[in-house]
Amino acid sequence: xxxxxxxxxxxxxxxxxxxxxxxxxxxxxxxxxxxxxxxxxxxxxxxxxxxxxxxxxxxxxx
Length: 62
Fold this sequence. Notes:
The protein has one domain. 26% of the residues lie in helices and 19% in strands. It has helices at residues 27-33, 44-52, and strands at 6-9, 17-18, 21-22, 58-61. The strands form 2 sheets. It has a two-stranded parallel ribbon with strand order 1-4. It has a two-stranded antiparallel ribbon with strand order 2-3. The longest helix has 9 residues, at 44-52.
């Protein structure tokens, strides 16, 4: 993997219920927990790219 890789991730800041579970997860939520598993990613390309992520790489959250 090339050094200096950057990632742009999308947050779900508004309440949205999927299969009976609220999937809301804002930047403020992330700030309070510092780390969280990302589950339920249905897009195969997104899932595969997330598997490539390494500790220490830069991430922007939109």
